[in-house]
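Protocol step 4 of 6: structure prediction from sequence.
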Amino acid sequence: MRVLVSAKWRSLSIGIQKYIDGTVFAFVDGGPKEEQIRRGEIPKITIAGRSEYHRKLRWEDITDLVTSERELLK
């Protein structure tokens, strides 16, 4: 079983990778703001690859937290 955690940050969807001492490490879904991200207009988002973005966030800055479970294939 794998637990997936998603949330929102400034109306962008994020997938939480890990949480350490109040810091959330997340994948950011650029969606409609992808061009702004690529131009550097949304600070501290790291471009990790084509349409792959990461950011460190404070726990207090995220909203709409959702957890889901997924069966792992054997």
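Step 5 (inspection) to follow. The chain has a mean pLDDT of 89.
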